[in-house]
Amino acid sequence: MIEVQNIHKSFGDNHVLRGIDANFEPGKISLIIGGSGSGKSTLLKCMVGLHAPEQGKVLYNGEDFTRMDFETRIPIRKEIGMLFQNSALFDSMTVEQNIIFPLEMFSDMSRNEKIDRANYCLERVNLAGRNKLYPAELSGGMKKRVGIARAISMSPKYLFVDEPNSGLDPETAILIDELISELTDEYQCTTVVVTHDMNSVMGIGDYILFLYKGQKWWEGSNKEIAHTDVEELNNFVFASPFMKAAKERF
Ligand SMILES: Nc1ncnc2c1ncn2[C@@H]1O[C@H](COP(=O)(O)OP(=O)(O)OP(=O)(O)O)[C@@H](O)[C@H]1O
């Protein structure tokens, strides 16, 4: 369980997050949605410690991560898997080396155990046998899947994913969503996804946090979102004629 309490974050005069409160539960997929520049990635980065909020707390199972120093954070960091927006693979490393990287940093596994784990993770993302390829040899969807394989290499308790579907065709985007869903079930991890993808919102959003003007404007499930009368949320989620028509059918 991750609790975010009264998070404020500014960049100079730009007060991006203005007191965000939210709870992210284990075994569920939580989505952070909102317009471009609304602060979604900033919130995610505050949660994983890449940004320091000026005010507020991020609690991991009740422990205040924001107040911890580098050393004290290590046990929690080991439990965090993260897929960055552009997959952020190391170009000079093979697929296998990319996946093993967190294990080299944080585990005391033997060489063979690491390779076994990399093979298992590659199977999970349907890329068995692609160990020796380099990122430049992969499609966008394959890169995302290698990024996910790396994110799960340490069997995470917390999985953070920034824009998993960006740049993917609709079919591959759905496969990635299904994979995130399966992994959340398998590891019973607290999964937090930043997304613009309305298919994901309707398909996998157990909990949805809508940011607007730096605030939590709405929260609820994908079942509830179709019936909300919050104008800003409706304008955002059901902006396209297709989504508007789909809403009528819910
Ligand atoms: N490192 C930074 N330095 C200065 N300003 C930043 C930094 N990171 C983000 N911002 C600003 O914070 C605001 C929110 O950015 P953020 O990336 O969190 O938005 P977002 O909702 O994820 O947007 P998008 O959907 O376009 O990715 C923007 O105005 C952005 O310019």
Automatic annotation (TrEMBL):
Keywords: ATP-binding, Nucleotide-binding, Transport
MF annotations from Gene Ontology: ATP binding
Origin superkingdom: Bacteria
Domain ABC transporter: 2-238
UniProt cross-references to InterPro entries, sorted A to Z: AAA+_ATPase, ABC_transporter-like_ATP-bd, ABC_transporter-like_CS, P-loop_NTPase
Stored PANTHER family: INTERMEMBRANE PHOSPHOLIPID TRANSPORT SYSTEM ATP-BINDING PROTEIN MLAF, PROTEIN TRIGALACTOSYLDIACYLGLYCEROL 3, CHLOROPLASTIC
Protein name per Swiss-Prot or TrEMBL: ABC transporter ATP-binding protein
Organism of this sequence: Parapedobacter defluvii
